[in-house]
Amino acid sequence: MFNPIPSCVWIALVNTFLFAFTQGVVIPLFPLLSQRLGLSLPIVIGCFSLGTFLFVFMSPYWALKSENIGRIKVLFIGSLGLLVSLLILIFLLFSQAYPVSLSLLFLVLSRLIYGLTASGINPVAQSIQADSSELASRPMVRHSLSLNLGRLMGFLSVFLFIDVLSPLFYTLSSLLVLLILSQIYLIVRQRNILRASKNLSEVKKRFKFDLHAGSPFLVAFCFAIYLELIHSSLAGKIERVFNLTGERAAEQSAILFVSVIFIIVLIQLCLLFVKEIPSDKGRQVGALFMVIGGILFSVFSNLWQLYVAVLLLAVGLALVPMFNLAKLKTIYGSRGYSEKAGWISSYYTLGYSIGGLLAAFSFLFKAEVLLGILLLLGSLLLWLCFPVSKSLLLKRGSCD
Which DSSP string do the residues of 220-267 spell out, in sequence order? Predict the structure, then answer.
């Protein structure tokens, strides 16, 4: 029933898993990093957003580069950079206290290395999945599940090891070292694996697309801003609303992140056994859940309101990205799909970086600012997912 999975696909899955696992470990620790480094929470969030912003330029670059030098070599560079950036964070968290200016310098260095190198992991791993000869839906679901399972394990690990974080970080570093060694072995054994015969100029022509062809790129951009604004605000907002320490805020954030990813995985597994759902309908339902959940998140004052908001957001997270990729394939077909998927990853990344900066900005003001930003972004997301057809506009115009 299932064809054997090639070694390069396994490498791609492990890369996306550890990439997401690292994110899942680090993101809930924003308040803790703020305390230990002596930096304000907006500065910590801003530094991480800086690294994410580099994905905007580097993800397309590495997607193009992988066509020239090979996918596995790009994944090797990405995982090596991920390891180095993680080691710098370990140095900051578990070594003796340093002057604030030096801590800030090392934190920025960690994020720069992360943004310049790890930005190639997700789009190139997704391209490897798209290169597969299997049915189009199965590789993409497999890729999505590896990311979500990585995030799930990362958040769960923070919850379980919040009081003894050093073993968690050292274990994660060891796993990355093993992955890097396995990639070196694979590169040496199969030097031309998945190497394209086309030159870069030919590939660049296929990267051109029309933003007005159906809006999956714009939906990705707006969705990512909305999500990251909530994502980066969560730990700090929990710390403020419930008056918790940085460690306890990180623990509560990890619990919520685990719950979200668990719900997403369940929904996506169920979708494997459901008949074809129109991509537009899937995006619309997901956007509605996202917007309602985001508004409730911005005004929560007790745990029950927070839990309901997280549940609604989880449904939206499970539906919008998956059906947005399906919409992308509906518009462009199978030809050049992997390149388009690499570019849409860049739009998500740009949105994530802007969302992180907006989160840092919102912490400088009252809670109403967060609500206002989410209302504006939510309205835009709904407008993109519920477009008014030209025929309807013409019909309305003729009645006036």
Answer: HHHHHHHHHHHHHHHHHHHHHHTT--HHHHHHHHHHHHHHHHHHHHHH
Joined tokens for residue 313 = 């957001």
Q: What CA–CA distances, in Å, run from 15 to 3, 124, 209? A: 21, 10, 28
Dist. CA 45–CA 237, nearest whole Å = 13
82 closest CA partner among 183, 207, 223, 228: 183
**For the ranges 47-56, 239-248, 280-289, which has the lowest average pLDDT?**
239-248
For the stretch 146-200, pLDDT in tens is 888 888 888 778 777 777 777 778 788 888 888 888 777 776 665 544 444 344 4
pLDDT tens-digit readout, 292-315:
999 998 888 888 888 899 999 999
Residue 374: other Cβ atoms inside 10 A: 25
The answer to whether residues 62 and 345 touch, using CB atoms and an 8 Å cutoff, is no
Amino acid at site 69:
I
Residue with tokens 């206002």: 372
Give 276's DSSP letter.
P
Nearest to 28 by CA among 240, 193, 249: 249
